[in-house]
Amino acid sequence: MKPVSLLDYSPEVAAAFAENRPIVALESTIIAHGMPYPENVQTALELENIIRAAGAVPATIAILKGRLKAGLRSEEIEYLGKNGPNITKVSRRDLPLILARQQDGATTVAATMIISAYAKIPVFATGGIGGVHRGAAESMDISADLQELAHTNVAVVSAGAKAILDLALTLEYLETQGVPVIGYRTREFPAFYTRKSGLSIPHTAESPTEIAKIMQAKWQLNLQGGLLIANPIPEAKQLDYEEMNQAIDEAIRQSKQQGIQGKAITPFLLSKIKELTAGRSLSANIELVRNNVHLATAIAKEYQLLT
Ligand code: PSU
Ligand code: MN
Q: CB of 88 within 8 A of CB of 103?
């Protein structure tokens, strides 16, 4: 067997490695399936610029014609955003097929973690991870993101997990799998659109330096797997807790009525909730992912200093 590289670094990311500069990975399912066009493309490009302005390098992760990409050109981001629902949403199970068939794919948190680890990028920012869905006892719908956090060595900065999920069960699952969940300056697990969830988490960190040291300790000990950094949406940008719960309940009701299943559920709920909140959920989603990118960049810089 001859060795093959499956991965292309963008020139900017390749230069960052050569110059030992910190890199932050970003996912592409949020572009293709998590937000509508053109807000998805504007947001993706803006997130990259936030990382650059803070002195690191963005590596947006996707699959194009069967090649893993760490770092995209702006035309490539535009392509993923414009073709949104027609681009396959790729999680761990889908990766081998998309590669073998030389297809395009938008990577979920799970697939982005796999590619980040392969590309040697230890810090990744997203909006909210997938988790245990409400009613999972019946549907068994548990996002592959949770298993990936259990196995793949990447720190994921997210605004907790999406409020459409069963957050209590999501935390139980992460505990069973030995995934550290670290609240950034909070002891409450954030619920994506709101800071509040009513669920406490055992660990808090006060600074990016502290988080970088925790990552280092975990991996020095050869503990396989990632870390979940739970970064609440800024106070002034959060949505009303009761109103959100009503919108989520209604969106879930409609998804059941329409028989939405499998990987279509999360994109369906996000877009329904956007409709039901007159676009306010989308604004909050953009705000929280910006906030996560700021924190991830600070963590990537601190971690780079330690290693
Ligand atoms: N965060 C967002 N919007 C999104 C997602 C995360 O703000 O669309 C995506 C992520 O890619 C995550 C996926 O991995 O939703 C979860 O999908 P599922 O529940 O089918 O595992
Ligand atoms: Mn699912």
A: yes
d(CA 301, CA 252): 39
Supply φ then ψ for residue 26, to 5 degrees. -130, 150
Q: Give the residue from 176, 189, 107 showing the smallest Cα distance to 147.
A: 176
- Paired strand residues for 142: 132
Ligand 1 atom nearest the C-alpha of 133 is 19
Distance CA 304, CA 300 (A): 6
What DSSP state is assigned to residue 288?
A: H
Would residue 78 show up in a list of annotated catalytic residues for this protein? no
Ordered structural domains, the chain, with CATH: 1-121 (3.40.1790.10), 127-307 (3.40.1790.10)
pLDDT tens column, 107-156: 999 999 999 999 999 999 999 999 999 999 999 999 999 999 999 999 99
* Catalytic residue list contains 162: yes
